[in-house]
Each structure stands twice: as C-alpha cells, then as structure tokens.
C-alpha cells in the first residue's frame, strides 16, 4: 500500500509540474502578444542613448505630410532632446515610457496612453528605467525635419515624474 | 488499498481539471491582450452599418489638425462610403478588416498593416465577415470634416478581395 501511495504521489507531482510549465508558456505568449508592428532596424544615427529600433509604417509625402513609425526602446534608452516643427503625437503600444518637455516635469507613459507634443517644443521620450517601451510616433513633416540637440543627462532621465495619466 | 487508490485517482482528476481551467484562463487573457486602447462608445450617428465603437485618443486643433481615434468594428460592420478632405491613415491593431476605394478592389487589412487613404478619395472600411477589427484612424481635420455618402451594399461588402498585403 505504501508503494502504491508513493507511485500516485510521484504521478501527481509530475502532473503538477507539467501543468505549471504549460501555464508559464501561455503567460509567456501573452507577454509578447502586443508585438503588433514590426520592430524594424536598430537606430544608428546617434540621436538616441541606448538601444532603439525603428520601423517606418507610413512615409510622409506632399499630399499627406504625416509619417508614422513604430519605435521600440530597450529599458533605459531614450531619444536626445529634439523638436518637431509640425508637432508629434505618441501612442503607447506596450511597456512603460517617459516623456518630458524642456522646463516641465517628466511624464510616465503606459500602454494605452496618447500624448500630443506641440510644434517646436523641445522634448525627449524613451523607455522607463525598468521596462522597454513601444510607441507609435505620428510626425508631421510638412514644416521641415526634426531638429536634434544634446543627450538627456542621467539626472534628467532619472528625475521624479508626474504619476498622473499623461494629459492629451 | 483499493480505497486509497480511489482517493488518489480522485485527487489526480481534480488537479487535472484545475490545471485545464487555469490554462484556458491564460489563453483567454492572451486573446484579449491586444485591447490596448479603450473601446469607447457605440457609434450612433448613422454613418456605420452594424455595430461600431469609437474612442477618441487625440482631438485635432488649430496647431495640429490630426485627430486620432480607436475604432472597433464587430464582424460584418463597416462605415458608409465617405471621404476625408485631408486624407487618413489606418493602422490595423487587431482582427481582420476590409478597405475599399471607389472603383478599386477590396483590400484585406490584418493586424500590423498600415494604409494611407488619399485626400478626397471615396472609400469605406470595416471588419471582415468573420472577424472583428480594431483600427487606429489618423485623420487630418484642417481641410474640413469627413463627408458621408451611401451605405456599402452587401454586394460590395462581399466582393472578392485582393489578398496581397495592403500597399502603403
């Protein structure tokens, strides 16, 4: 009888371990299921600190000046300070990110957030310290290209953020 | 001994059923994990056939004329024929949808697709017959509001689509 009980205990343990693996596998799939758009190529133009990828979804033209890109920031990565002559709209697709305008507090962006960056306002955006960040960037090109400035210092990058949902 | 074996069999069966429920729950969560933006309110302005929801992420203004909305179509639902004076960009977030310009073949849109609708081109878009469709719609408002026309007939809605990936 003891031997039979041992056999059943071993079988039950094995089943429990198998169930645990299956659950983790399902959870892992859901963690990556927000990879909606291609990640694209690593950005090597020197305008970002850390590791950033860009995939161009729509190119602006003379008829519709908006370009639309899928930007993926590794945790800790961010753009340099920069401005867009026609402004920009950011849609947070996944992860946690930061956005900051010159002279204002840093804002946390989370999946589902949307924020409008006014024309000619110097700002930066990127991933949070702990999490990657995926954003759709909608940028008007009809008033000229993006203008790039200096890197975001560690002090600015790590500054205390506003924790309210980003204002539209 | 037989009684002990029965007890263990019952325990094992119960554990298996619990594991099955947990797996289905995880799969269910991943199926809904592309619900990035709020679904919003049901559209009741008469410009859509079937059930459609809209959530406004960004309102256009005098500084940046782009409005950005999250549009969710139930399977079989679609807009009426319409045009945008400043054009539109659609980003397919989830599901399967259709897009058609007047005089051209219907195009299938799938999660991850992006398409640019030129200014003043009469078109419609919506969900496929079998699947709901979630899209981000980026619409310039600086040249006036959307102009709405007639409903899409069942014949047009069910026309044979082009199966290639939607052109940018």
Detail the topology: elements first, then pairings.
2 copies of one chain form a homodimer.
Chain A: H1 2-31, E1 41-42, E2 48-49, E3 52-58, E4 66-73, E5 78-79, E6 82-83, E7 88-101, E8 106-110, E9 114-117, E10 123-127, E11 133-140, E12 147-148, H2 154-157, E13 161-162
Parallel strand pairs in A: 8-13
Antiparallel strand pairs in A: 1-3, 2-5, 3-4, 4-11, 6-12, 7-8, 7-9, 7-10, 7-11
Structure overview:
- Two copies of one chain form a homodimer.
- With 168 residues, chain A is of the alpha+beta class.
- Chain A folds into two domains: 2-31; 35-158, Jelly Rolls (Sandwich), CATH 2.60.120.
- The first copy, chain A, is built from two helices and 13 strands; from the N terminus they run H-E-E-E-E-E-E-E-E-E-E-E-E-H-E.
- In chain A, the strands form three sheets. In chain A, strands 1, 3, 4, 7, 8, 9, 10, 11 and 13 form a nine-stranded mixed β-sheet that branches. Chain A has a two-stranded antiparallel sheet with strand order 2-5. In chain A, strands 6-12 form a two-stranded antiparallel sheet.
- The first copy, chain A, is elongated, with a radius of gyration of 22 Å.
- The termini of chain A are far apart.
- Chains A and B meet through helix 1, strand 7 and strand 11 of A and helix 1, strand 7 and strand 11 of B.
């Amino acid at each position: 009888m003891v031997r039979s009980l041992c056999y059943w205990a071993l079988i039950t343990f094995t089943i429990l371990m198998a169930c645990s693996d299956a659950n983790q596998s399902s959870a892992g799939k859901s963690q990556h299921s927000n990879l909606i758009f291609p990640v694209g190529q690593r950005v090597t133009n020197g305008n970002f600190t850390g590791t950033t990828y860009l995939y161009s979804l729509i190119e602006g033209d003379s008829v519709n000046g908006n370009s639309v890109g899928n930007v993926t920031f590794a945790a800790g990565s961010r753009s340099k300070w920069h401005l867009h002559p026609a402004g920009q709209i950011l849609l947070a697709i996944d992860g946690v990110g930061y956005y900051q305008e010159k002279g204002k507090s840093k804002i946390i962006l989370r999946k589902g957030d949307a924020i409008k960056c006014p024309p000619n306002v110097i700002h930066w955006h990127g991933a949070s310290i702990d999490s990657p960040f995926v954003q759709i960037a909608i940028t008007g090109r009809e008033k000229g290209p993006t203008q790039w400035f200096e890197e975001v210092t560690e002090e600015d990058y790590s500054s205390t953020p506003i924790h309210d949902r980003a204002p539209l």
